[in-house]
Amino acid sequence: MKINLTSIMVDDQQKALDFYTNILGFVKKQDIPMGEFRWLSVVSPEGGDTELSLEPNVNPAGKTFQEAMFEQGIPMTAFEVDDLDAEYRRLADLGVAFTTEPTEAGPVKLAVLVDTCGNLIQIYQHVSA
Amino acid sequence: MLTQDHLLRLCKARDQLRSVDQPSLDEVAKSAAMSRYHFIRQFKAVFGETPVQFRTRVRLERAKQLLAHSSDSITAICMAVGFSSLGSFSALFSRRFGRSPSAFRREMGRAGGLPTPGCLQILRAAWEHDSQI
Protein backbone atom coordinates (compact mmCIF):
# COMPACT_ATOMS: atom_id res chain seq x y z
CA MET A 1 0.00 0.00 0.00
CA LYS A 2 1.33 3.45 -0.93
CA ILE A 3 0.22 7.02 -0.33
CA ASN A 4 0.26 8.61 -3.76
CA LEU A 5 -2.62 11.01 -3.42
CA THR A 6 -3.75 13.38 -0.72
CA SER A 7 -5.96 16.46 -0.76
CA ILE A 8 -6.56 19.80 0.81
CA MET A 9 -9.76 21.84 0.74
CA VAL A 10 -9.56 25.30 -0.77
CA ASP A 11 -12.10 28.09 -0.94
CA ASP A 12 -11.33 28.92 -4.57
CA GLN A 13 -9.56 26.55 -6.93
CA GLN A 14 -8.06 29.17 -9.24
CA LYS A 15 -6.72 31.18 -6.32
CA ALA A 16 -5.32 27.97 -4.87
CA LEU A 17 -3.62 27.02 -8.12
CA ASP A 18 -1.95 30.45 -8.22
CA PHE A 19 -0.72 30.14 -4.64
CA TYR A 20 0.42 26.53 -4.74
CA THR A 21 2.31 26.97 -8.03
CA ASN A 22 3.45 30.59 -8.24
CA ILE A 23 4.17 31.08 -4.53
CA LEU A 24 4.92 27.68 -3.02
CA GLY A 25 6.54 26.41 -6.22
CA PHE A 26 4.61 23.20 -6.89
CA VAL A 27 3.79 22.15 -10.45
CA LYS A 28 0.32 21.58 -11.87
CA LYS A 29 -0.27 17.89 -12.59
CA GLN A 30 -3.94 17.48 -13.43
CA ASP A 31 -6.56 20.03 -14.43
CA ILE A 32 -9.72 18.31 -15.60
CA PRO A 33 -13.06 20.18 -15.76
CA MET A 34 -15.74 18.50 -13.65
CA GLY A 35 -18.93 20.47 -14.00
CA GLU A 36 -18.75 23.54 -11.80
CA PHE A 37 -15.36 22.46 -10.45
CA ARG A 38 -12.07 20.96 -11.57
CA TRP A 39 -10.03 17.92 -10.74
CA LEU A 40 -6.96 19.95 -9.93
CA SER A 41 -3.73 18.64 -8.49
CA VAL A 42 -0.11 19.67 -8.01
CA VAL A 43 3.13 17.81 -7.39
CA SER A 44 6.52 18.79 -6.05
CA PRO A 45 9.16 19.65 -8.67
CA GLU A 46 11.70 18.06 -6.33
CA GLY A 47 10.38 14.56 -6.95
CA GLY A 48 8.29 12.11 -5.02
CA ASP A 49 5.12 10.46 -6.23
CA THR A 50 2.59 12.17 -4.03
CA GLU A 51 -0.03 14.27 -5.76
CA LEU A 52 -1.90 16.98 -3.84
CA SER A 53 -5.49 17.57 -4.92
CA LEU A 54 -6.85 21.10 -4.44
CA GLU A 55 -10.47 20.32 -3.65
CA PRO A 56 -13.28 22.88 -3.51
CA ASN A 57 -14.66 23.30 0.03
CA VAL A 58 -18.25 23.58 -1.15
CA ASN A 59 -19.49 20.79 1.08
CA PRO A 60 -20.78 22.72 4.14
CA ALA A 61 -19.42 20.09 6.52
CA GLY A 62 -15.95 20.40 5.03
CA LYS A 63 -16.11 24.16 5.11
CA THR A 64 -17.11 24.19 8.78
CA PHE A 65 -14.24 21.85 9.64
CA GLN A 66 -11.75 23.87 7.62
CA GLU A 67 -12.76 27.17 9.20
CA ALA A 68 -12.68 25.72 12.71
CA MET A 69 -9.16 24.38 12.19
CA PHE A 70 -8.04 27.71 10.78
CA GLU A 71 -9.52 29.72 13.65
CA GLN A 72 -7.91 27.40 16.18
CA GLY A 73 -4.54 27.91 14.51
CA ILE A 74 -4.13 24.25 13.55
CA PRO A 75 -2.27 23.47 10.32
CA MET A 76 -4.16 21.32 7.83
CA THR A 77 -1.04 19.61 6.53
CA ALA A 78 2.75 19.90 6.42
CA PHE A 79 5.41 20.08 3.72
CA GLU A 80 9.08 19.26 4.23
CA VAL A 81 11.77 21.70 3.11
CA ASP A 82 15.56 21.42 2.99
CA ASP A 83 16.31 24.84 4.46
CA LEU A 84 13.53 26.26 6.57
CA ASP A 85 15.10 29.66 7.19
CA ALA A 86 15.74 30.23 3.49
CA GLU A 87 12.23 29.10 2.58
CA TYR A 88 10.74 31.33 5.27
CA ARG A 89 12.64 34.35 3.94
CA ARG A 90 11.70 33.58 0.34
CA LEU A 91 8.00 33.24 1.14
CA ALA A 92 7.91 36.22 3.50
CA ASP A 93 9.48 38.33 0.74
CA LEU A 94 6.64 37.22 -1.54
CA GLY A 95 4.14 38.54 1.01
CA VAL A 96 3.11 35.22 2.56
CA ALA A 97 1.71 35.62 6.08
CA PHE A 98 3.05 33.41 8.87
CA THR A 99 1.42 32.55 12.18
CA THR A 100 4.58 30.86 13.46
CA GLU A 101 8.08 32.00 12.60
CA PRO A 102 10.88 29.41 12.31
CA THR A 103 10.90 27.59 15.63
CA GLU A 104 12.85 24.59 16.85
CA ALA A 105 10.66 21.74 18.05
CA GLY A 106 12.71 18.70 18.97
CA PRO A 107 13.89 16.86 15.86
CA VAL A 108 12.42 19.45 13.50
CA LYS A 109 12.43 23.16 12.90
CA LEU A 110 9.05 24.44 11.75
CA ALA A 111 7.03 27.47 10.67
CA VAL A 112 3.35 27.92 9.88
CA LEU A 113 2.05 29.91 6.92
CA VAL A 114 -1.34 30.97 5.60
CA ASP A 115 -2.18 29.55 2.17
CA THR A 116 -4.76 32.29 1.37
CA CYS A 117 -7.34 29.56 0.63
CA GLY A 118 -8.55 28.88 4.16
CA ASN A 119 -5.69 26.76 5.52
CA LEU A 120 -2.66 26.98 7.74
CA ILE A 121 0.26 24.96 6.39
CA GLN A 122 3.24 23.84 8.40
CA ILE A 123 6.62 23.69 6.73
CA TYR A 124 9.39 21.83 8.51
CA GLN A 125 13.00 20.79 8.24
CA HIS A 126 14.57 17.81 9.94
CA VAL A 127 17.49 18.99 12.03
CA SER A 128 20.36 16.76 13.02
CA ALA A 129 20.68 15.88 16.69
CA MET B 1 3.81 37.85 12.08
CA LEU B 2 0.12 37.15 12.57
CA THR B 3 -0.86 36.50 16.16
CA GLN B 4 -3.76 34.20 17.02
CA ASP B 5 -5.75 37.24 18.14
CA HIS B 6 -5.07 38.96 14.84
CA LEU B 7 -6.13 35.88 12.91
CA LEU B 8 -9.38 35.62 14.86
CA ARG B 9 -10.21 39.27 14.29
CA LEU B 10 -9.72 38.78 10.56
CA CYS B 11 -11.92 35.67 10.62
CA LYS B 12 -14.66 37.61 12.41
CA ALA B 13 -14.32 40.36 9.81
CA ARG B 14 -14.69 37.74 7.08
CA ASP B 15 -17.90 36.54 8.76
CA GLN B 16 -19.21 40.10 8.88
CA LEU B 17 -18.49 40.56 5.18
CA ARG B 18 -20.53 37.42 4.49
CA SER B 19 -23.52 38.61 6.49
CA VAL B 20 -26.66 39.84 4.81
CA ASP B 21 -26.50 43.02 6.93
CA GLN B 22 -23.83 44.27 4.54
CA PRO B 23 -21.81 46.49 6.89
CA SER B 24 -19.52 49.04 5.25
CA LEU B 25 -15.82 48.32 4.88
CA ASP B 26 -15.05 51.03 7.42
CA GLU B 27 -17.40 49.43 9.94
CA VAL B 28 -15.81 46.02 9.46
CA ALA B 29 -12.29 47.44 9.75
CA LYS B 30 -13.29 49.29 12.89
CA SER B 31 -14.75 46.19 14.52
CA ALA B 32 -11.49 44.38 13.70
CA ALA B 33 -9.68 47.23 15.49
CA MET B 34 -7.59 48.09 12.42
CA SER B 35 -7.24 51.08 10.18
CA ARG B 36 -8.95 50.68 6.79
CA TYR B 37 -5.57 50.49 5.03
CA HIS B 38 -4.10 47.96 7.45
CA PHE B 39 -7.29 45.88 7.37
CA ILE B 40 -7.33 45.64 3.57
CA ARG B 41 -3.63 44.72 3.47
CA GLN B 42 -3.91 42.09 6.20
CA PHE B 43 -7.13 40.63 4.80
CA LYS B 44 -5.52 40.15 1.39
CA ALA B 45 -2.43 38.53 2.91
CA VAL B 46 -4.58 36.02 4.82
CA PHE B 47 -7.45 35.34 2.44
CA GLY B 48 -5.80 36.04 -0.91
CA GLU B 49 -8.27 38.68 -2.01
CA THR B 50 -9.35 42.12 -0.85
CA PRO B 51 -12.44 42.46 1.35
CA VAL B 52 -14.41 43.84 -1.61
CA GLN B 53 -13.32 40.95 -3.86
CA PHE B 54 -14.24 38.51 -1.10
CA ARG B 55 -17.69 40.04 -0.59
CA THR B 56 -18.35 40.02 -4.34
CA ARG B 57 -17.35 36.36 -4.59
CA VAL B 58 -19.61 35.43 -1.66
CA ARG B 59 -22.54 37.28 -3.19
CA LEU B 60 -22.03 35.59 -6.55
CA GLU B 61 -21.80 32.15 -4.94
CA ARG B 62 -25.01 32.87 -3.01
CA ALA B 63 -26.70 34.02 -6.21
CA LYS B 64 -25.62 30.81 -7.91
CA GLN B 65 -27.27 28.73 -5.18
CA LEU B 66 -30.48 30.77 -5.39
CA LEU B 67 -30.56 30.56 -9.18
CA ALA B 68 -30.23 26.79 -8.96
CA HIS B 69 -32.63 26.16 -6.10
CA SER B 70 -35.25 28.93 -6.02
CA SER B 71 -37.82 30.24 -8.47
CA ASP B 72 -37.21 33.90 -7.56
CA SER B 73 -36.63 36.24 -10.46
CA ILE B 74 -33.07 37.11 -11.41
CA THR B 75 -33.69 40.71 -10.41
CA ALA B 76 -34.95 39.62 -6.98
CA ILE B 77 -31.90 37.39 -6.50
CA CYS B 78 -29.59 40.18 -7.60
CA MET B 79 -31.06 42.47 -4.94
CA ALA B 80 -31.29 39.73 -2.29
CA VAL B 81 -27.59 38.96 -2.39
CA GLY B 82 -26.60 42.61 -2.15
CA PHE B 83 -26.13 43.98 -5.66
CA SER B 84 -27.93 47.18 -6.54
CA SER B 85 -27.45 46.98 -10.31
CA LEU B 86 -28.68 44.10 -12.45
CA GLY B 87 -26.17 45.07 -15.13
CA SER B 88 -23.12 44.83 -12.89
CA PHE B 89 -24.47 41.63 -11.29
CA SER B 90 -24.88 39.97 -14.71
CA ALA B 91 -21.45 41.14 -15.85
CA LEU B 92 -19.70 39.91 -12.70
CA PHE B 93 -21.61 36.63 -12.73
CA SER B 94 -20.75 36.01 -16.39
CA ARG B 95 -17.09 36.81 -15.79
CA ARG B 96 -16.83 34.44 -12.85
CA PHE B 97 -18.94 31.53 -14.05
CA GLY B 98 -18.61 31.80 -17.82
CA ARG B 99 -22.30 32.29 -18.56
CA SER B 100 -25.07 34.73 -17.71
CA PRO B 101 -27.39 34.18 -14.72
CA SER B 102 -30.26 33.23 -17.03
CA ALA B 103 -28.09 30.78 -19.00
CA PHE B 104 -26.86 29.27 -15.73
CA ARG B 105 -30.46 28.85 -14.50
CA ARG B 106 -31.51 27.14 -17.73
CA GLU B 107 -28.53 24.81 -17.45
CA MET B 108 -29.36 23.95 -13.83
CA GLY B 109 -32.97 23.28 -14.82
CA ARG B 110 -31.80 20.72 -17.34
CA ALA B 111 -29.20 19.21 -14.97
CA GLY B 112 -31.64 18.96 -12.04
CA GLY B 113 -29.75 21.26 -9.66
CA LEU B 114 -26.30 22.16 -8.51
CA PRO B 115 -24.24 19.10 -7.53
CA THR B 116 -22.00 19.11 -4.47
CA PRO B 117 -18.81 17.15 -5.07
CA GLY B 118 -18.56 14.37 -2.55
CA CYS B 119 -15.17 12.84 -2.98
CA LEU B 120 -13.18 13.77 -6.02
CA GLN B 121 -10.69 11.00 -5.33
CA ILE B 122 -13.40 8.47 -6.00
CA LEU B 123 -14.40 10.30 -9.15
CA ARG B 124 -10.82 10.34 -10.25
CA ALA B 125 -10.35 6.68 -9.53
CA ALA B 126 -13.42 6.00 -11.64
CA TRP B 127 -12.07 8.20 -14.41
CA GLU B 128 -8.70 6.44 -14.36
CA HIS B 129 -10.41 3.09 -14.28
CA ASP B 130 -12.54 3.99 -17.30
CA SER B 131 -9.55 5.31 -19.23
CA GLN B 132 -7.73 2.02 -18.75
CA ILE B 133 -10.57 -0.09 -20.10
Could you describe the 3D structure shown?
With 129 residues, chain A is an alpha/beta fold. Chain A has helices at 13-23, 60-71, 84-93; strands at 5-10, 27-34, 37-43, 51-56, 77-80, 98-105, 108-114, 120-126. In chain A, the strands form 2 sheets. Chain A has a 4-stranded mixed β-sheet with strand order 1-4-3-2. A 4-stranded mixed β-sheet of chain A has the order 5-8-7-6. The longest helix of chain A is centred in the middle third of the chain and has 12 residues, at 60-71. The model of chain A has no long low-confidence stretch (mean pLDDT 94). Chain B is mainly alpha-helical. Helices cover 72% and strands 0% of the residues of chain B. Chain B has helices at 4-18, 25-31, 36-47, 51-69, 74-80, 86-97, 101-111, 120-132. In chain B, helix 1 packs antiparallel against helix 2 (25-31). Chain B is globular. Chain B starts with a helix and ends with a helix. The mean pLDDT of chain B is 88.
Q: What string, H for helix and E for strand, traces the elements of chain B in order? A: HHHHHHHH
Please report the number of helical segments of chain A: 3
Largest sheet of chain A: 4 strands, mixed
Radius of gyration of chain A: 15 Å
**Distance between the ends of chain A:** 31 Å
* Estimated structural class of chain B: mainly alpha
Number of helices of chain B: 8
Shape of chain A: globular
Order of helices and strands of chain A: EHEEEHEHEEE
Task: Give the averaged pLDDT of chain A, no decimals.
Answer: 94
Main β sheet profile of chain B: none
Strand content of chain B: under 5%
Say how many strands of chain A there are. Answer: 8
Oligomer: heterodimer
Radius of gyration of chain B: 19 Å
Question: Number of DSSP strands of chain B?
Answer: 0
Shape of chain B: globular
Helix content of chain B: over 70%
Largest interface: pair, residues per side: A-B, 33 and 25 residues
N-C termini distance of chain B: 52 Å
Beta-strand fraction estimate of chain A: 35-45%
